[in-house]
Amino acid sequence: MNVRRVSIVLLMAAALVPGCFCPIPASAQSTKVVSPVAPRREQVEAVIKEAYEKYKNDTNGKNADYIPYLAKVDSKLFGIAIVTTDNQVVTVGDVTYSFSIQSISKVYSMALAMEEQGPAKVLEKIGSEPTGRPFNSPNAVVDMSTHSGNPFVNAGAIATVSLISGSTADEKWNKILDFYSKAAGEKLVLIDEVYKSEAATNTGNKALSYLLAKYDRIYADPFESVDVYTKQCSVGVNATQLARMGATLANNGVNPATGERVIKAEDIPHILSTMMEAGLYDGSGTWAWNVGLPAKSGVGGGIVAIAPGKGAIAVFAPPLDEAGNSVKAQEVIRYVADKLNYNIFSPSSVGFK
Ligand code: GLN
Q: Among 152, 154, 190, 226, which residue has the most ligand 1 atoms within 8 Å of its CB, making it the best to mutate?
């Protein structure tokens, strides 16, 4: 018997012994492990194209204008990106345009605060209750027993930034930017014009920071915390990068493109539950009812929604509704979530008939 035949016989014998180490045949090695409930790529491609065509001419809503830069952004820009947990990327429209992440940043600063302090401290120091009020409401700070509300309203987000360690504001800022970049799998940068425009007009956020100080619910210098917060809101992302940041959450904290663990697995449910309850501010209840996906919006026009274990969808379209949530992004994600059976409250999303 020659060497080749001996090894074939050995392989056949090994395959018959239960629990024995059996080398994986070359044909099987290239087979990707895919989620049993994730939709097929062709299906995803078809659905986001349909959604793009269906909503591209919708002119409802209005760009945010309380930050002067945002009023000037082309309101026709429209991009959709999906990144799956097995790192498939499907896009349509303006997916390379860099827009300001705005409030979507709050998700990743919350994650960073939890990395450093653990979830129990973040819950104790910030809270996680929906305010039912606009995102910049001073009344919510006065009325709520936690004062800060949750990490996704401005007050709670500024307090979250104040929790992040660093001996200088620059050190905190660089740590935040680095963390966001790891979640995106690419180096992200500040859009300086957005930062300047927002820093020149953010008296409301400064007022919130001092109100928090009155209740001992801010943990570093109030104005310094507002400044770092303003920078984090001015980070530029495109729809594909944002979808990848979302896919890092969907993939239990590991960036599906780089394979790097960015967020602890045990923190993910706390992040996603907060997104479900407060990600779209006073629009969050209706969103949960209609879409059933944890999501986060920003006044720059982005929304990212997470289908746990499957992937994330990010949509960019600047015109907003009254609550400050992109009109087209909500429509698209609702359409896609419905067609792809993503709603986490529906047992059929995990295979039940
Ligand atoms: N930077 C914005 C602000 O502080 C973020 C608000 C948002 O995106 N909802 O008002």
A: 154
**pTM tops 0.85, yes or no:** yes
Same domain, 293 and 166: yes
Ligand 1 centroid to residue 319 C-alpha, Å: 14
Amino acid at 300: G
3-state secondary structure of 306: strand
- Ligand 1 atom at minimum distance from 300 CA: 8
99 CB within 6 A, ligand 1 = no
Maximum distance among all alpha carbons in the chain?
A: 86
How many other CB atoms are there within 10 angstroms of residue 45's CB atom? 15
Q: How far apart are CA 119 and CA 122, in angstroms?
A: 5
User: Residue 5 is part of which domain span?
Assistant: 1-36
CATH number of 166's domain: 3.40.710.10
Residues 238 and 253 in one domain: yes
Q: How far is CA 134 from the centre of its chain?
A: 20
Measured in Å, residue 222 CA sits from the centre of ligand 1 at: 17
Residues 23 and 165 in one domain: no
**Alpha carbons 6 and 259: distance in angstroms, whole number:** 38
**Two tokens, residue 210:** 């001092």
Ligand 1 and 325: CB distance under 6 A: no
Q: The tokens 């982005």 sit on which residue?
A: 302
pLDDT per position as a tens digit, 19-73: 333 333 333 333 455 566 667 889 999 999 999 999 999 999 999 999 999 999 9
Strand partners, 314: 81, 304
Going from the C-alpha of 106 to that of each of 124, 160, 168, 273, the distances in angstroms are: 17, 8, 20, 14
Query: In ligand 1, which atom is closest to the CA atom of 102?
Result: 8
The tens digit of pLDDT for each residue in 217-246 reads 999 999 999 999 999 999 999 999 999 999
Instruction: Report the run of H or E that residue 312 belongs to, with start and end.
Output: strand 311-316
Cβ distance 130 to 275 under 8 Å? no
